[in-house]
Write a structure and sequence with these properties.
The chain is mainly α. Helix content is 45%, strand content 8%. The longest helix is centred in the first third of the chain and has 11 residues.
Length: 80
């Protein structure tokens, strides 16, 4: 996901969304009691990608790598 997809209306790949990705993420966080984000990018690169940092903040640091270990940690958080 590119930073403009998170911050800009119309920033999605469809270009016709009137709200930014951040608005959608906030809406999800308000709708569901628990939320995790599974990130397919290797964790060692997370600090070098602005959009990942933005999503990490939007999910209140509930981001996990898309690995078996990350799935286990994410599911443990969701099942509390």
């Amino acid at each position: 996901m590119a930073p403009y997809e998170v911050t800009s209306p119309g920033g999605s790949v469809e270009y016709n969304n009137e709200e930014s990705g951040a608005v959608w993420m906030q809406r999800m966080a308000e709708t569901f009691d628990k939320l995790v984000w599974l990130n397919p990018v290797q964790e060692k690169y997370w600090d070098y990608t602005p959009s990942i940092t933005m999503l990490k903040d939007l999910t209140e640091d509930k981001m996990f790598p898309l690995t078996l270990g990350g799935l286990e940690k994410g599911m443990a958080l969701l099942s509390r």
